[in-house]
Specification:
single chain; alpha+beta; six-stranded antiparallel β-sheet; 31% strand; Immunoglobulin-like; Jelly Rolls; eight-stranded mixed β-sheet; 2 domains; 26 strands
Length: 415
């Protein structure tokens, strides 16, 4: 079961900065504070020091605790603005400007909420009037963590022609309508992340009391290093079937008979390694291999290998011969005499991830049957599940853990 915290809600402690006085990053210029409710303001200061918050004719003084954490609570206020907020402690001070009191809404979810206004119908029309729309967004930067974070990273942004493209489309139109109906400024906290599942947002403590999840909790790693070690162990066990690892050079593998690769895991093309076996979150180099059966009539023919729209750095070998890439994208020329009668070894050394789109990662990218071998009189389709895959663990590699790359689901569910 996936497990980690994506820190997107209001928390009451912030990390220490170089200056001792600081606030949570939720507080900044252009922020929107909730009207008609108590407004907490919190941050860090020198331990036991007094902190004074001045805002809209209210002056609240509190004392930092032993860890330097402080929180002041402003009394409910009506909508309005623009205001300044000043926070002082000893000789230090922080001032935030252009603050509005209005409505604050948390906009959370998956790709439907994450979908940006720049990609929505009517975006150009919205740009023309954006400066008159009383909507502001705080975009929470994405971060995966196995434990609760102490603060968020992001900033408040005014609606303007050059900024609304980054706004959540759903959040923007909701906030715009609400602002028009209530005649107040509306702030949206955009905390969405496409592809996340419910388990991504559940704490260890909540899992422990859920009947469906409680048995998983004892197996969960406690930190990033434990997660990395577990993932690495599972990857090696999957790729090498729990036998000692032997690393080969591309040249060695290119000259192997096709039977050599039967012990490799079998996967499909086109497709991203992110969704194959235990390769999720793996970032490094690797190999893809398949056998191509031909009769003797093709041995004297030249041909072209097409790898769809793959734009990764790669090397392609047929029966030990390194092929030259022609002027077309992801196509490689096979000279006459390279193919042989019977089973032929096609090896691809993936030296980088796909460049566009960057999220694709390792693998062959294509649509339909555009991964093929083309002879003058026939096309052999290679868009199928007859590929063998192997990570190249002799090269540097690491893991990037994200909520939508299945790393957490498979790490935890398959214990």
């Amino acid at each position: 079961m996936k497990f980690f915290f994506i820190t997107l809600a209001v928390l009451f402690i912030t990390s220490t900065t170089s200056a001792q006085l600081s606030t949570s990053k939720l507080f900044s210029d252009h922020m929107v504070l909730q009207r008609n409710h108590n407004v907490p303001v919190w941050g860090k200061a020198a331990k036991k020091e007094k902190v004074t918050v001045s805002f809209n004719n209210q002056v609240i003084t509190v004392k930092a605790d032993e860890q330097g954490s402080w929180k002041a609570v402003l009394q409910p206020m009506k909508e309005g603005g623009q205001y300044n907020m000043k926070i002082t402690s000893g000789k230090e001070s922080i001032t935030y400007s252009d603050i509005m009191l209005g409505e604050v809404w948390l906009c959370s979810g998956q790709s439907n909420m994450e979908f940006q206004l720049r990609n929505a119908y009517g975006y150009k029309a919205e740009q023309k009037t954006a400066a008159q729309v009383a909507v502001r967004q705080f975009l929470v930067q994405k971060k995966v963590s196995l434990t609760p974070e102490k603060d968020v990273t992001g900033q408040w942004t005014l609606a303007a022609a050059n900024t609304i493209g980054d706004f959540s489309a759903v959040g923007y139109f909701f906030a715009k309508k609400l602002s028009q109906n209530l005649h107040v400024t509306v702030g949206i906290i955009n905390s969405s992340w496409g592809g996340t599942e419910a388990e991504d947002w559940i704490s260890r403590e909540s899992m422990a009391v859920a009947p469906e999840l409680s048995t998983i909790v004892p197996t969960l790693p406690l930190n990033d290093e434990q997660l990395k070690q577990r993932t690495d162990k599972q990857l090696k066990a999957w790729a090498y079937h729990n036998v000692p690892i032997v690393n080969y050079t591309p040249e060695d593998l290119a000259s192997k008979p096709v039977g050599f690769f039967e012990s490799w895991q079998k996967e499909s093309a086109p497709g991203s390694w992110e969704w194959m076996g235990k390769l999720y979150s793996y970032r490094g180099e690797g190999f893809m291999q398949r056998s191509i059966g031909l009769d003797s009539s093709y041995t004297a023919m030249g041909s072209t290998i097409a790898l769809g729209i793959t734009d990764a750095d790669l090397a392609v070998y047929v029966n030990g011969k390194l092929l030259n890439k022609n002027t077309a994208n992801s196509q490689f020329d096979v000279p006459a005499g390279v193919w042989k009668a019977g089973a032929n070894n096609l090896l691809i050394n993936l030296k980088s991830a796909q460049k566009n789109p960057s999220w694709f990662g390792l693998g062959l990218n294509g649509v339909g049957n555009d991964i093929n071998v083309r002879f003058a009189d026939t096309i052999i389709n290679m868009a199928d599940g007859n590929w063998h895959v192997m990570p190249d663990l002799s090269k540097p590699y690491h893991f990037d853990f994200e909520p939508n790359n299945s790393a957490f689901t498979r790490n935890f569910a398959e214990q």
